[in-house]
Amino acid sequence: MTPSLFLKKGRQKPILRRHPWIFSGAVERLGGNPSAGETLAVRDIHGQFLAWAAYSPESQIRARIWSWEENQTVGEAFFQERLERSLARRSPLSRAGDDRQALRLVHGESDGLPGLIVDQYGQTLVMQILSAGAERWRETVAEILMDLTSAQSLYERSDVEVRNLEGLSPRTGLVRGVSPPERVAIEENGLTFEVDVRQGHKTGFYLDQRLNRANLREFTRGKEVLDCFSYTGGFAANALAGGANSVCLVDSSGEALQRAKENLAENAFSLEEVEFVEEDVFQALRLFRDQARAYDVIVLDPPKFAPTASHAKRAAKGYKDINLWAFKLLRPGGILVTFSCSGGISTSFFQKIVADAALDAEVNAQILERLSQSPDHPVVLNFPEGEYLKGLVVRKQ
Ligand code: SAH
Fold first, then answer.
1. What positions carry a catalytic annotation?
2. What secondary structure letter does DSSP report for 310?
3. What is the DSSP string of 323-346?
4. 193 lines ligand 1 (CB under 6 A)
5. How far is CA 46 from the centre of its chain?
6. By the number of CB atoms within 10 A of the CB, which of 160, 236, 347, 356 ranks highest?
7. 158 CA to centre of ligand 1 in angstroms
8. CA–CA separation, 162 vs 169, rounded Å?
């Protein structure tokens, strides 16, 4: 008998609205004795079927829905179909026969595959497994991915903290195919970047910023640009491609800056007007102010300060601080491109934080554009949590 999960009275509403998560507080009882990752039937208090979901005994998100169709079997054919559809959705973004393409192929819940991330870097696929359910089907998914793509390597980067919440320990390494190159060369917006899929952040590169990086070019011709939290130089390279006079990259990681330097050189940009500053951004912005520096364009792309809503308050302080100092360093008419990738900070809250920062810096500013994650990281309408990256392009008056 397939195990069941019965919801408390009246708690089926989000499920009927196709939200894919079942929180522990909504669970009345379990029928049967499911193991971690096992598929169970989600039922209302009366036993009415609602969905098939994967059981996560250790997580506050107690189950994640695979399917709302009662006649669906969650097995190999199911994953084959979901993965095929996920790849097919990317075909408008995909460059046929390009072995330097970089694209997110599977974006978890938004592709109907909760807990599964797959990124493509040329011939290398990198997968990240974030839930007990996805963990259970790891081998099946790996087989199908190799079968559906012409990838030479499938590498795993399941070394993220959220796995702890699912009771899963970290895992990295080769899953299928040959060992990926030390550096995988990719092309993004006509620029070349070398990606370290073993040691790099996330799966190696911040693919979600692809369109926002290209967008930066609109503002950089003849300008002095400050790229804060530069990582391997994604925004800096686009600032130069847009005709920036100078770029200053700030990151606390010397290794990231070294990669950034190599990436900029690889694209034949002169490094004469490029400065690399290994420093905490909170410190650097103050230091630059003391040095009476000023910039025309400032990018703030910090790491996740608030992974969940419970961290929002402290995170807000951090965001406000860097935005405040950036406003001070901007010349009149200058452009601030500011991001938050914190799931725990909503779009409207982020805008308020930036507004508060402007107020404290005693500047007036206008929003020119609102930015989000690139379309290979789609957001399913009934799962707004999928929209984690928000950005504002703001002009100081
Ligand atoms: N803009 C980058 C991605 C930024 S990721 C891109 O487009 O690829 C965040 C970066 O911030 C990482 O490189 C990390 O090393 C750096 N970082 C984290 N905390 C920092 C801090 N307090 N000061 C400076 N850099 C920091």
1. 341
2. G
3. HHHHHHHEEEEEEEEEEE--TTS-
4. no
5. 39
6. 236
7. 20
8. 10
Secondary-structure class of domain 4-67 per CATH? mainly beta
Convert the pLDDT of each residue in 28-65 to its tens digit. 999 999 999 999 999 999 999 999 999 999 999 999 99
Query: Which tens digits make up the pLDDT trace of 289-338?
Result: 999 999 999 999 999 998 777 888 899 999 999 999 999 999 999 999 99
- Output the CA 302–ligand 1 centroid distance in Å: 5
3-state helix, strand, coil in the chain (%, to 5): 30, 30, 40
CA distance 19 to 4: 18
The answer to whether the beta carbons of residues 58 and 166 sit under 8 Å apart is yes
- 206-396: what fold? Rossmann fold (3.40.50)
Residue in the block written with tokens 């070398």? 194
Give dist(CA 322, CA 6) in Å, integer: 46
What gap in Å lies between CA 192 and CA 237, rounded to an integer? Answer: 9
76-184 to CATH, choices 3.30.750.80, 3.40.630.30, 3.40.50.300, 3.10.180.10: 3.30.750.80
Whether 234 lines ligand 1, by a CB cut-off of 6 Å, is yes
Residue 272 tokens, joined: 């004469």
Distance CA 301, CA 279 (A): 15
Q: Kindly report the protein residue whose alpha carbon is nearest to atom 6 of ligand 1.
A: 234
